[in-house]
Design brief:
Strand content: 25-35%
Largest sheet: 7 strands, mixed
Radius of gyration: 33 Å
Distance between the termini: 67 Å
Helix content: 25-40%
CATH superfamily of the largest domain: von Willebrand factor, type A domain
Length: about 425
């Protein structure tokens, strides 16, 4: 239980100072009246404390989800109740650890039938074990001179995971959109090399698809129908080193990469391909074999949640060499990484080039909106000019590396962080249509 004065009590006590000074000047023998004013104010505060609701009669309960996707706001509810002498309103606050941002800072709620509920928004900023560590409720006495406060430790854990719900929602939107325009059907039939079925030839179909033997047997033109190959191996290689732990658009870059990778995994498993996950920083951290079927998505999700934030520099040579040694057939390797200096970029390009001798590499590049904004912003002082020059140099270096990867034969996906997932899925579907794997 905590007891302390309100702003009104402080102003009431301070109001006696001018009065005491005036009396001391006019009649020095009445200086004791100043002490009487302080005693009176203290008496009023004591009476207010005795008349207010007792903290022992107040109870605080917290309701929050057990899991939350990183970057996806969730709601937590605090219930404050008092058995007797309940105040008219209560000010409630909720505190979380560094992985959970709570807003608003505090709320004032009115009690009805002795209880009140306050809803807070939880903003998971980093994956891991989030905790709601403290909940506070305070109220004033009937005179408004004293705060009485009750504090509790709910010790409620909220596990912050990759945003799987957002991944599934985005995947459903993509499937619904593609189905409306026939894209889903095209992926199944028409543009692949695997024989699917025979169908009657129709105007507009490729004449090279006509099966003349079957046409003679059926006494009408019959064409072969093909479907896109399945069972391709798709490896999601995520760099989890120091640079990927830097924030971008409100989340760490590695979290954006994980969300995009999970979206691709969800779509790829649905379309019949085999998916694997690989993460590395200074050394390999997560490595799975390839798996198939929609029922394998929870496994990919669990392994993605184990990718931790790292402060170590990325060792591209060890990471990508280890990955290449695990692959026993040609695969589509999707590389999520970032680079900041020519040395790391050179090492990265050298090892990606070695990987491309056998495999198709899809290289994912984060489009840094912050750097582009710095370049386009109108300079107002010398510091703005310096920032613009540095940002332009970084963008130029990034473009040079991307151009070099394109010349080597890598497929490039470059998009803002918020649009990375759909752009990656589009590039993946394009590789399937073109049968590049």
């Amino acid at each position: 239980m905590t007891l302390y004065p309100t702003r009104r009590a402080i102003l009431l006590t301070a109001a006696g100072a001018p009065l005491a000074l005036a009396m001391a000047v006019a009649a020095p023998q009445l200086w004791v009246a100043a002490g009487a004013w302080v005693v009176m104010a203290a008496g009023l505060m004591l009476a207010d404390a005795l008349l207010s609701a007792k903290p022992a009669a107040a109870t605080l309960a917290v309701s929050a989800p057990r899991t939350a996707g990183v970057g996806r706001p969730e709601a937590a509810e605090v219930t404050a109740a008092s058995e007797g002498g309940a105040p008219q309103q209560v000010e409630v606050a909720l505190g979380g650890n560094d992985r959970l941002a709570v807003s608003p800072v505090r709320q004032v709620v009115r009690l009805a039938s002795g209880s009140a509920r306050a809803t807070f928004e939880l903003a998971p900023g980093r994956r891991g074990e989030g905790r709601l560590e403290r909940v506070w409720a305070r109220w004033q006495g009937p005179l408004g001179l004293v705060w009485r406060q009750r504090e509790a430790a709910p010790a409620r854990e909220v596990l912050v995971t990759p945003d799987v719900q957002g991944v599934k929602e985005e995947a459903l939107r993509l499937f619904a959109r593609d189905a409306a325009f026939g894209m889903k059907a095209q992926l199944e039939t028409g543009e692949g090399s695997d024989f699917h079925a025979l169908k009657e030839f129709q105007t507009g179909m490729d004449t090279r698809a006509i099966d003349w033997k079957q046409s003679a047997r059926h006494a009408r033109l019959v064409a072969r129908e093909f479907r896109t190959e399945r069972n391709h191996h798709v490896i999601l290689a995520i760099d989890s080193g120091r640079l990927m732990s830097a924030p971008l658009a409100g989340l760490a870059r590695v979290d954006h990469a994980i969300n995009a990778a999970l979206l691709l995994a969800f779509v790829g498993l649905k379309l019949g391909d085999r998916l694997g996950l690989f993460a590395f920083d200074s050394r390999p951290r997560v490595a799975s074999g390839v798996t198939a079927g929609a029922q394998a998505f929870p496994l990919i999700q669990r392994l993605a949640a184990e990718i931790d934030y790292s402060a170590e520099e990325t060792n591209f040579t060890l990471g990508l060499t280890t990955l290449a040694g695990r692959l026993d057939r040609r695969a589509l390797v999707v590389v999520f990484t970032d680079f900041a200096d020519p040395t790391s970029a050179e090492l990265m390009v050298e090892n990606v080039q070695r990987l491309m001798r056998t495999h198709l590499v899809l290289f994912v590049v984060f489009r840094d909106q912050e750097l582009e904004d710095l370049v386009r912003a109108e300079p107002k002082d010398a510091d703005d000019v310096s920032r613009a020059v540095v940002a332009q140099a970084l963008l130029r270096q990034r473009d040079a590396v991307v151009g070099r990867l394109k010349r080597l034969g890598a497929q490039i996906v470059e998009a803002p962080a918020g649009e990375l997932g759909p752009a990656l899925v589009g590039a993946y579907l394009d590789t399937k249509r073109r049968e590049l794997v």
